[in-house]
Structure formats: C-alpha cells, structure tokens
Amino acid sequence: MLTINEISDAVRRGERISAEAALTLWREAPLWLLGELATARKRKASGDTVYYNRNVHLEPTNICLFNCEFCSFRRRENDPDAWYMTLDEIEARAKELVDTDITEVHIVGGVHPKHDLDMYCAMIRRVKGVLPHVTVKAYTAVEIFYMIRHEGVSIVEGLRRLKEAGMECIPGGGAEIFDAELRKKICPEKCSAEEWLAVHRAAHNMGLATNCTMLYGHIESLEQRVDHLNRLRELQDEAPGFDAFIPLKYHSRGNRMSEAGECSVEDDLRTIAISRIFLDNIPHIKAYWVSYGRAITEMALMFGADDIDGTIGDTTKIYSMAGGVARPTMSVEELESMVVSAGFVPVERDSHYNSVSRDNRGEQLRHSKIVKQEVKVETPKPVAKIEKVENKEIDMQNKKTAELPKRSSSVPRKSSKAGDAGYIERAKMFYRRKPIISHIILIGIFCLLLLMGLYVGLKRGTRLGSTIAVPNFLGMNIEEAYALADENDLNIVVRDSIFDVDLPGGTIVDQLPRLSTVRDVTVKPGRKIYVTTNAYNRRMVDIPYVAKQTLRQALNQIERSGLTISKLSYEPDMTSTDYVLAQYVGRKEILPTTNGKYPVGTGVTLKVSYRRDESSVYVPRMVGLSLQQAKHVLWDSGLNVGKIVYDESVGDIISQRKARVYRQSKGLGTTLNRGSEVTLYLSCDEALVDSMNVIASKELKNVEAQRRRAIEAQKNSDSK
Ligand code: V47
C-alpha cells in the first residue's frame, strides 16, 4: 500500500491514482493536503475560473412510482400536496421565462406512472417552442430508462427521439450510490447501476453531453463511494461525455433515512477534493450551492470545485423539502461575489461550458466557441474572394496567353535604367508564362502578409508577452485606485461592497488577483482587477424570518441577506437539536409580521434548541481559516465566536481581513456545551499560520483515529 507522501507526489506529478490510493487519501490525508492537491488539479483544469450559469429548474411532477428512502420530494398520486403540470401549464411556465436572461432549463421530476416517451418529448417541445434559444437539459437516467423500457424501444432509439425533440444534454441525477447491496437498501425500485451507466454510455456515443452525481453522507461506506467514482471514471475512459461530476450531500429532513443524520462540513470538503483528484478525466466538479449553502460552496472552491451551478430562481424543491436552502435563488452578483470571495474569477457559462458574453445591459452576445467559429469563418473569406477574383484573372490570362504568339526564352533583358518598369515587365512575363506557379507564389505572399497582420494585431490587442506586476490596491480609496490602475494600464472593476463602520467609504478591502508575499503577481496589460470596496452608506436590508427552520438554513439566509450572527443562544428541548426557536435583534424579537429594514452587518441572535442527550459538540478545526470562514465553521458546529486576538503582525483593518487563525482556545476534537465560546488567535505571518496548520492536521488525524477506535469499541461492546 502506498503512503500518503507517495500518493501526494503522484498527484503532484499529474498521475492517475488507484481506487486503493483514493481510499487511503480519504481516510488519512489531512484536510489541508487534500485542499492543496485538489486545488492544483483544479487550476490545471480550469485555471482561476469558476463557472456559473443562469438557469431554472422545471419539476413537472412530484408524483413518483419509486419510493426511495432518502427522498423528501416524492408524493403518492392521491396525496394532498402532490402536484402535476399539464403540457399547457409547462408552456405557460416557459412563457413566463421569455423576458429573462436564462440560458438553461433543467427538467427533472418524479417518474409519473402515466407519462410515456411521447409525453416527455412533448414537454421538451413545448419549452423549446417558447424558448428556442435556451438549452433544455432534461431527465435523469432513471426517468429515461423507465420511459424507454415502458415504450419498448432501445436506449439509442429513445435517446434519439428525445434529442430530436430538443433535449441537448442530460443531468446527472439518479446515480445515488452504484453498489448493488446499498441500492437495495436506499432505492430498491430504481434502475440498477448498470442500467444508469448504459443510458449515459449511449448518450455519450451519440454526442450528448451528460453530468454525473453521487449521493453521499448517509449510510454508505467510503469503499462504496470510491467504487462509485471508479465506475464513473471507467465509463468516461470508455465513452467520454461527462461534463461535470456533482457530489450531492444527503439532506435528512422529511425522509425515512433521517436517522442517518447529515455528514460534517469536513466530509463535504474531503469528498469534493477526492472527486477532483480521482476523477482526472471529468473536466468539471460542481459544488451545488442549493445543497451546500453559501458557506460550504465557497469553501468547496478551495477544494477543487470549479462550478457552483446557477441562479435557479427558486424553481427546485428537491433540496428545500429535504432541509437544503429554503427558497433557492441567487442573483448573478451574489454568485459572482461568492466566487470572488473564494479568490477565483467568476465566468458565466452556457450548458456546454462555453463562456457567455453580455453587453452592459446584460444581454447575451455570444458564446466563446461561436466567437472562435466566427474567426474560423471570417479568416478564409477574403482569401476565398481573392481566389475568385484571381481565378477570373487566371482565366483571362490563360486566354490571353493562348492568343499570344509564344515568346522565345531569350527575351532581351531590359537595361537597369529601365528600373522598376523592367522588374514589372519581367514579373508580368513570368506571370504569363507560369500562371499556376505565379498564383501559388501570390497566395503564399498573401498568407504571409495576413499572418504578419494578425501577429501585429494580436500583439497590439493582447500585448503578447508583456506583463504588469499587479499593484497593491488594498486600503486605497477607489479614486486613487482608478488613477493607479490607469497608470499601470489596468482596469478596476468593483465587484462587491461590504460595510465596515471602522473604515472610510470607498476604501478597497479586497482585490483579485490577490498579491503574494513571496513573488510579484503579474497580468497582461488591460486586464481587469476585481475589487471589493467599503460602502459609503450602510445599505438597509430586510431581515429574513428564520425561526422554525434548521440552524443551517437560518445561517444561510441570514448571511445572504447581508446580516450577521450576534450569538447562538441554546435552549433545551424535548424533540430536536439545532432548530431555530426564535430570533432577536438586540432585545427585540423578530416575528413573521415584523416590518422594517436593518443596516447591513446588523447582528441577529438566534435562540436554538438542543436535546439534552445532544448537549455537547466537538470543537472543529479553525486553524488556517480567515476570520469569516472560522466564524461560519463555529456557528455551523453550534458554537459561538469568543474573543478575537490579533498578533503583532496584524496592523490596520485591511490586514485584519487578510489574517488567518493560527490558534484556537479550545483544542480540536475536545467537546464543549452547545453555545460555548471559542477564542480565535489570528496572524498575518504566513509561516506561523502554515506551521500551525501542519500541527493541526496531525492533531486532526489523531482525533479522527481516536474517534474511530471509540466507535469500534462501542460496536464491539454492543455486539457482546
Ligand atoms: O437524483 C434526492 C438527489 C438528485 C435527496 O446535473 C437528494 O447539473 C440529497 O441530480 N438529499 C436530483 N440529495 C438533483 C440532481 C442535480 C442537481 C443539480 C444539478 C444537476 C446537474 C443534477 O437529488 C437525485 C438524488 O440523487 N436527492 N433526495 C436528499 N434528501
């Protein structure tokens, strides 16, 4: 068995790792190492880019023949909250989307007993009829397999009919976990792994791109996860066509597997990272924000994800019904700011990962591949024209040549005095005598000139080869930053704003690309530098009503609204843990009827329930994280932020934002009562933070090993 060091070296060299090595990494590698390896692979695959799109989901029905244990979405036909959309309703929904700027409709729903292939094709046709420019990504392999078998046709024929109706790509749902034994437990009625893979194989062979998923964090083992990833990797080797892999975190509310609970954030990050490292032949790893919420999605970008899905516009219920983000919708600005906060460059994509350009009114201009095609189409045009003109000339010349009496090769040379006229005369003669060779030479000269023109143009346009060291804009006023950017031939783009009372309005608090302490960060002239500024006026926002939701949902909503958490105050409860009982601003309780706006950054206190037998929690690891990230991890674990102590390397407020945690007052893996405070110590000294990070990783490994031993011991004593 390879050691962690040997596996890491292999990953760094860009080599493929075995299933066994993936399992070793999953079990033993410290989280920071997984982050490093996965990020290196992500950067190789997509550089600084993180993709999102403008999309909606269409869920035509929640009535489903299959009764999967993990599903909170499915209803029986006669359930009072079952729904079903007729074709006219589907068309009406599509019409509502005509004036929006979406590029994709994702159609997925229950497997309705009365839907046949024609009905599924008709749904696509209705949508495409109204939104011809929008891509329809439709139906999971589970739905497709059912409709095709029901129709009695082959998979290829079924897919051909769906494609003809307008289906352009296939989403990745329904894969769950491929292991047959586990499938029997969690989704016994669904198609088998082999059938799911057969649908995707056939789609790839027909040129249809698809996605793939894995439902994790319930009762599956790590071996079953690796086996699942391995089968996807094998299919991609055999018949490439997967665009993206989406690890789907199991959500436990409202389904029969609730007892399994939900996995930790650390498990989410490990899963994303191993997926990126192991699936070396699938270009994109998607952190589906609807499932993860903002905080985990942002962290997932530092663990190899390069896609966060899209705007959604509150159109999917699969996750909200299971306890994911309550009313999932994000503006382009919110999606982009999430990407920028994680240190990457947001790029809007279409369904095939072409970047989408828009004019300043937000109207879609074209996709990058089309731009490339335009270049391809346009370049030969002038040549073609010239060829035509020249062909005519050749014809005329040939005619003339035929008419002319043949000249002897001993035509007297013109004297040098004749100068240019002499050369022209000789060139003309050569042209008449050797028209084909002359043409080849002319075309060659033309191509040479064209290439030279292109080179000069490109050099001017992109300033090939020249680079500029990115200046430090942090702490400057936006006007000063514009001036400095001008001097350096760079462009400032304000991407986001925060509100910090301690800072003057207009101060730059973050920039992308960020600077490195060890080397100059260089970019091409004309490049955009994305900055976050401190707002001049404190924006007023609505406060969301988050009581009667899970803590995680409440945290997501509070954060998205621009507010923050003041305190988590825990109360014993008979039935549930981490359920929000009430919310306050200061002493004022916020009720569903409360009106009025609050300044951005206002702290909200959440009163949260806990069952007495679940009064304590493990202290998570915060070393290595920024203050904001550490706060999220603490709140997510049911703990509060105590004192914040900066060491002497941290001076002004700008460096406070750059500082990272190097120590936490309560040790990793120790237990604390819910609501307890943890003091965080922060530093800008990278060497200090990195060395403490290494120590924390070792500690984490020990803690995990201890926990595993304790679980084993418990199991053994239970079986006795
Ligand atoms: O197949 C169902 C999962 C999937 C739960 O291809 C659950 O771009 C967690 O596949 N907890 C449907 N997950 C969603 C899906 C998807 C989503 C976003 C993008 C793409 C894409 C695909 O949701 C199901 C199932 O695996 N699921 N219930 C649950 N309780």
What does it look like?
Helix 16 crosses helix 17. The longest helix has 34 residues, at 686-719. Helix content is 42%, strand content 19%. The chain starts with a helix and ends with a helix. The chain has 4 domains: 53-264 and 285-292 and 306-333 and 340-366, TIM Barrel (Alpha-Beta Barrel); 468-534, Trypsin Inhibitor V, Chain A (2-Layer Sandwich), CATH 3.30.10.20; 541-612, 2-Layer Sandwich (Trypsin Inhibitor V, Chain A), CATH 3.30.10; 615-720, Trypsin Inhibitor V, Chain A, CATH 3.30.10. With 720 residues, it is α/β, with parallel strands linked by helices. Strand 19 (580-585) and strand 20 form a beta hairpin. Strands 1, 2, 3, 4, 5, 6, 7, 8 and 9 form a 9-stranded parallel β-sheet that branches. The model is unreliable at 369-419 (pLDDT under 50). The structure holds ligand V47.
